[in-house]
Design a protein that fits this description.
The chain is of the alpha/beta class. The chain folds into two domains: 174 residues, Periplasmic binding protein-like II (D-Maltodextrin-Binding Protein, domain 2), CATH 3.40.190.10; 91 residues, D-Maltodextrin-Binding Protein, domain 2, CATH 3.40.190.10. Helices cover 45% and strands 15% of the residues. It contains 14 helices and ten strands. The chain has a five-stranded mixed β-sheet, with helices on both faces. It has a three-stranded antiparallel β-sheet with strand order 3-10-4. Strands 1-2 form a two-stranded parallel sheet.
């Protein structure tokens, strides 16, 4: 009987031990816990650039660019990634798009949609990430103080200076078209806005395509405004990068768009200060800036109207042999996710 009782107690003890093992712990041991998460810092993201190159274009009246540089908003945003910001004063559309293609510039902050379409038509990797501004009234064609030029028909045979492949160039061709003329009916001389202004003031050309403070000052000095871009061009200015840059550095593109939002918010919150800063940078009076500022729409969202406008420009450029290959405008817009 004692041997049977001893065997029974042994079996009970063994069962208890096995039950404890089944629960993942030995008798008398604390239950197992989840290993603590690693406290090591996440690895810093790797980028394909060691700086952020941005174009700085303050004309015609690019208030967002002026405010951004003054307040160092880009520098603040990209400091998080250890990347300095370098500005480039390239203002001509072809120079800007070439710099983007070469990798010297990562963001074209204020480039004419006309220039982007021309670059895309030539096979370049270029994508629009936001709108910069719309300002048809700010783009103008000037004649001399005592000029007899009053209509598009009067431009036949005249020498006209301005930046090629830009909104101003588009304005000229659109205006000529209202009189059944083409660029072949005038002598177009490609040059930047300051040079075109000097050429008109010096009598070297009959007309000049001007915008922004330069146009404002010429009008105040008595030079004749032959036409503005109103009802001729939408004057859509955009912000662009490349598909390749986005694919390799999506965080940086998102950071740029975040900075744009900060710039826009600062402008809304400080209306008087931004006019003062702009006047100082452009060497205009406060009164002049106040008069010009309402001509501009600086909303950064790409709207259906913007897309329609760019499609119209693309068709216009095809019709006037400004581009050889058609461009899918909607495909030109980068989907940043």
């Amino acid at each position: 009987m004692k041997r049977i009782l001893s065997l029974f107690l042994t079996l009970v003890m063994v069962s208890g031990i096995l039950a404890g093992c089944g629960n993942g712990a030995q008798a008398g041991e604390p239950p197992a816990t989840t290993p603590p998460a690693s406290t090591e810092p996440e690895a810093a993201p790797e980028f394909t650039v060691n700086k952020i190159g941005v174009t700085y274009v303050k004309s015609p009246l690019n208030v967002p660019s002026i405010i951004e540089k003054e307040k160092g908003i880009f520098a603040g945003v990209f400091e998080e990634y250890g990347l300095p910001v370098e500005y480039s004063n390239l203002t001509a559309g072809p120079e800007q798009t070439q710099a983007l293609a070469s990798g010297d510039i990562q963001f074209l902050y204020a480039v004419g949609a006309t220039s982007v379409i021309l670059s895309a038509s030539n096979g370049a990797d270029i994508k629009i990430i936001s709108t910069y501004s719309r300002s048809p009234e700010a783009f103008r064609l000037f004649a001399g103080k005592d000029s007899s030029i009053e209509s598009a028909a009067d431009l036949a045979g005249k020498k006209i200076a301005g930046p090629k492949g830009t909104i101003l160039h588009e304005l000229l061709i659109a205006y000529l078209g209202t009189a059944g003329l083409t660029e072949n009916d005038v002598e177009f001389v490609s040059m930047g806005i300051p040079e075109a202004q000097a050429a008109l003031a010096g009598g070297a050309v009959d007309c000049a395509l001007l915008a922004g403070p330069v146009a404002y000052n010429m009008a105040k000095d008595g030079y004749s405004v032959v036409t503005t871009g109103q009802d001729l061009v939408d004057a859509t200015i955009v912000v662009a990068t490349s598909q390749a840059f986005y694919e390799k550095n999506p965080l940086l593109v998102k950071a740029f768009l975040k900075a744009q939002d900060e710039i826009r918010q600062y402008m809304q919150d400080n209306p008087e200060e931004i006019l003062e800063i702009t006047a100082k940078e452009t060497e205009l009076s406060i009164e002049a800036v106040e008069e010009m500022f309402p001509m501009y729409d600086f909303d950064t969202e790409i709207t259906a109207a913007d897309i329609a406008s760019m499609k119209k420009t693309e068709q216009f450029m095809q019709d006037n042999d400004m581009i050889e290959n058609p461009v899918d405008i909607e495909g030109l817009i980068l989907k940043v996710e």
